[in-house]
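Hey L., structure's done. Input below.
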Amino acid sequence: MKKQWLILALIFIGLIGASYAEDVTNALTCEIEKTSSPPSNYQPLLYVLAGDASTYDSSSDLVFNAHVSNYSSTISPMPQFALYCSADSYGKIGGMVVGPPGCSKYSSLGFMALINLSDAENAHLKLKDGSSLTGDYNYQLCIYPYDTVGSYITCKYEYGKECDTGYTCLFKLTGVYSSSATSFAGTNAHLYECGYDLGSTPYYTVCCQYHVGLSNDVITDVSSPVAGSISATSTEKNIYVLLGLTDNFIVNLYNPSDTPKVIDLYLETNNNLFKYFLWFEDESKRYSEDPTHIQLTIPPKQSKSVTVNVFGGKVGIYDLVIKKVVDGDPASENVIYNSTVTVIPGKTPGTVGKSPEGSYILLLTILSMVALLIK
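Output:
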């Protein structure tokens, strides 16, 4: 039975490269739909003024060349379309058009400026300008997460192309003078639905992510940057390390609050010997007095990352827990990562450096070991 388990484990680590994340990278989906039949569990962010042949293609069911308005019950008659967004079951995303001084007025509530408008109603669009709100585009569409703790939204503009993988398209807009106009879109910009093909017309795509946080006010994400490497491969909460080799993964932390946060991270295991095979950061930290503890200070609205190293020093199965404490408050202690580390026998003891050819070496090693075990 043990032989069969080891064969499966070796084949498994040779074929699969993955990561484990404590939070969701992007829970956001958005659609422009008719207000008469809004999508279930989606929240309206913005009215889209479209409906006639110059703003709506009924054959493809796509909105184009449209103005926008604040989503408000006071607008009459009710526009036929609206931009709706959802964060699934993780929380909600809201939208509000705000006049000067714009979204900064509500920054403490997590409001983020997405785009500038020429007015609260029947407005043209302009890419968000980092300067003060002056001139003709002094309204902003603010978006924000709610009904959740620790979640946050990040957005960017893509010139002349679709959103990158992992981002959600909200809409496209024209009115761009040139590709060098990276800080703003030209005046008289109109909204186009994400699926609309603008051809050679210059345009920007508005792309966003909704990051789902944990219950603590500092958001964490744990991932392995090296997939299919010679030293280890992770899947879900299991990490497999070949004897004598070292692998690492990254703990990312983001502080969405308006004050600095002091974060203490601790590595824990159920085996006293295996604890000596765990450390944060580089080799100098490994041989320090406390290699399994590190303290970070994260400024407001910023992120930091720290490396966790795992050395396959002895064959066996071990628990690995990462705990986090915020601002020295014992009540904030939280397990952000809980996994099983399996150290598997390897042919060559000692640390082996990683290289682009590592996955091929690993595959050959695995096949050789499997052949021996089958005999």
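The first helix runs from residue 2 to 15. The helical segments are 2-15, 283-286, 358-374.

-- N.
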